[in-house]
Design goal:
By secondary structure, this protein is mainly beta. The chain has six domains: 131 residues, Immunoglobulin-like (Sandwich), CATH 2.60.40.10; 101 residues, Immunoglobulins (Immunoglobulin-like); 132 residues, Sandwich (Immunoglobulin-like); 113 residues, Immunoglobulin-like; 105 residues, Immunoglobulins (Immunoglobulin-like); 31 residues. Helices cover 5% and strands 51% of the residues. It contains two helices and 46 strands. The strands form ten sheets. Strands 1, 3, 5, 7, 9 and 10 form a six-stranded mixed beta sheet that branches. Strands 21, 23, 25, 27, 28 and 29 form a six-stranded mixed beta sheet that branches.
């Protein structure tokens, strides 16, 4: 080194020279029993040099000093005992003095530590001790830690620090579900020089893949920093959560307050095939302004994160999206989804997710998809199992009755899928369609195996007898299976019951507006404006006021002269005592309709019928035509006048030429 620091112990050289108490001069031996380490770690902080000296002459005072001679720097020195040291008279008995010199040095140095210690008496010759070349061990090392996690709206960060005594060159790489690049400030890098003086360095981890194409769920990458020459490395894992919102949960005005999942047996996390599931999602506007055009969406993902929602048939008129409209400040609305678990859905693990977003603001700016009600915050873990109850191995799905209402002598067809939802293969299955009152007792057999998860389509047909009473009948589907040696050893525990209305075979007093029995209540509301030519919505609430469960069949009539019925949400259903059901009718009135128009809504049970006349007022909706009913004649006349004027103009110009 160009200059060496000279470290002095705590000594008083001038005082030693002036001491009046010294008599004679010490005679010192060379230092002996010298001890110091041969190697040392860079972060040890200090080391000791110990030695002994003998005085064989008169008492004296010794001054200790030190000089740094190594390639690495020493910081401070402390002598024990401290300098100057008083030495007793050794002229008669040799006096031995033990000394410890403690040297400190800064960490992260490499090379050698060395120096000399000089022992100078008040009078006489000085002695010198050299402690040479203490090698500082090479210890390349660094630390790495994950700073910010990667998200759809934020880059990740990687924090690195050199904790060793060697300069490092780190090669940076990544592997996993998506690709990234590394930035040092604004500069893209593939390696990083990490000097031994660098205690902390932050680089930015930026995704370069299109994150929107990732499947639902969690996706991880591993970031590596390696110095092969020094055999040191670090790895950190970054996890990107692909939740239901396209750009992740964003904005704070919408929150999902609650998610309630219910099924037939009350276990929200375990579903059986063809089981009916209902999901209610409570959405609140926590902002200070109205959130417009709010939609709530439902999805089901398989264990690989693939969206399998398209396999689900939602009940009623709802599908996987529900329009809640505008939600005012501090208001809360509920979206409901009801569906049957598809019979062809594979058993296994699934993730149920919901999101609420503003179509007006854009899903990329305002979307919520997390709730504490969900098992993993942004999804609910669901297990779809096969039925293990032998009496429920065979179920029926996609049941279609045509027509849905019939009269005497009509031919009725019933199509359905027979599904093996159990955990055993079936060699043969027999299906029966039964109604004793209608004389229906039909049977079909499936003989080409119905293995686990298989389904087969069947169709039954029958005629309505001419003497059939007007009422609602219930068709029953029953399955027999576990076939062996010509015998079906198992019958389904519960039959599938299908309400079916027959009318027009006998006279009814239902047009009076009163019930021919008891137990039915009907109320109606117009849910949209009555505008000629534009579809309108009428909601009708049917209530079971009887003391027992009833099967209801509903319909509408009396509108054909002024409107077309586009759809009716449900035509048959079962209501327990006191239960109500809302039925939605969508009608499109003719373009020239005006004034008040009437139609009749009818609800029937097996022993009762009630009708309600519903009025729709279109006002004076006809637009006045200044030509009356002779519009075409007037148009032709105007065209002829224009042609005559043109002919006259041309004739005048020709005559002047």
């Amino acid at each position: 080194m160009e200059s060496k620091k000279i470290f002095l112990g705590l000594f008083a050289l001038l005082s030693a020279v002036l001491l009046v108490s010294v008599v004679g001069a010490a005679t010192l031996s060379n230092p002996f029993d010298v001890s110091f380490p041969s190697t040392i770690n860079h972060d040890a902080g200090s080391f000791d040099v110990t030695f002994k000296i003998n005085n064989s002459a008169g008492a004296d005072t010794l001054t200790l000093t030190s000089t740094d001679t190594g390639s690495a720097d020493l910081s401070t020195i402390v002598f024990t005992p401290s300098s100057p040291i008083s030495v007793a008279d050794g002229s008669t008995t040799v006096q031995t003095v033990s000394v410890k010199a403690t040297f400190t040095f800064a960490s992260k140095q490499d090379g050698t530590l060395a120096g000399t210690i000089t022992i100078t008496p008040g009078a006489g010759s000085a002695k010198t001790l050299s402690f040479g070349s203490i090698t500082i061990n090479n210890a390349p090392a660094f630390t790495g830690s994950k700073g910010d996690e990667i998200s759809f709206t934020k880059n990740g960060t990687y924090v690195l620090g050199n904790t060793g005594n060697k300069n490092l060159t780190l090669a940076l790489s990544s592997s996993g579900a998506f690709t990234v690049k590394f930035l040092d400030g604004l500069n893209q890098i593939s390696s990083l020089s990490l000097l031994k003086s660098t205690s902390s360095k932050t680089i930015t981890v930026v995704p370069t893949s299109d994150l929107t194409v990732l499947n639902f769920g969690s996706h991880s990458i591993t970031v590596n920093a390696v110095d092969s020459a020094n055999n040191v490395q670090d790895s950190e894992t970054y996890t990107l959560t692909k939740s239901f919102c396209k750009a992740g949960s964003i904005g704070s005005n919408l929150t999902i307050n609650g998610v309630d999942i219910s099924n037939e047996d009350g276990d929200e996390e375990e579903w059986l095939l063809l089981e009916t599931i209902k999901v209610d999602v409570d959405v609140e506007n926590t902002g200070s302004d109205t959130v417009r055009d709010v939609f709530v969406e439902f999805a089901l993902f398989d264990s690989a994160g693939n969206d399998v929602t398209s396999k689900i048939d939602f009940l009623g008129s709802d599908d996987e999206k529900v329009d809640l409209g505008n939600i005012g400040e501090d208001d809360e609305e509920t979206a409901s989804f009801e569906f049957r678990v598809p019979g062809d859905l594979d058993d296994g693990s699934y993730k149920l997710a919901v999101k609420a977003y503003s179509r007006d603001a854009g899903e990329e700016k305002l979307c919520a998809d997390r709730s504490s009600d969900l098992s993993n915050t942004f999804y609910q873990s669901i297990t779809v199992d096969r039925e293990n109850d032998e009496g429920k191995f065979i179920r029926f799905d996609d049941i279609i009755l045509s027509p849905t209402e019939a009269t005497c002598s009509d031919r009725v067809s019933l199509s359905l899928d027979v599904v093996n939802v159990g955990d055993e293969d079936q060699d043969q299955v027999k299906v029966k369609l039964i109604n004793r009152d209608l004389g229906v007792d039909l049977t079909q057999e499936i003989r080409n195996d119905l293995d686990i998860g298989d389904d087969t389509s069947l169709e039954f047909a029958f005629d309505i007898p001419s003497n059939t009473a007007d009422k609602t009948y219930v068709l029953e589907l029953v399955a027999e299976y576990d076939y062996k040696n010509g015998v079906y050893r198992e019958v389904s525990d519960d039959s599938e019951r299908i309400p079916f209305r027959i009318f027009g075979c006998s006279e009814s007093d239902s047009n009076s507006g009163t019930s021919s029995g008891t137990g039915i209540s009907i109320s109606a509301n117009l849910d949209s404006d009555a505008i000629p030519g534009e579809q309108m919505t009428v909601s009708v609430t049917v209530s079971n006021t009887a003391s027992e469960q009833k099967v209801f069949t509903v319909g509408a009539r009396g509108f054909s002269s002024w409107a077309e019925l586009d759809s009716i949400s449900e035509t048959s259903f079962i209501l327990t005592a006191g239960q109500s059901k809302e039925v939605t009718l969508k009608l499109t009135p003719k373009a020239d309709v005006s004034g008040e128009k009437l139609f009749t809504f009818e609800a029937r049970t097996e022993d009762s019928v009630r009708t309600r006349e519903i009025a729709v007022d279109f006002g004076d909706a006809k637009k006045t035509n200044i030509f009356g009913d002779n519009t075409l004649i007037w148009v032709i006349g105007i065209i002829n006048v224009i042609l005559i004027i043109l002919i006259i103009v041309v004739a005048v110009r020709v005559s002047r030429a």
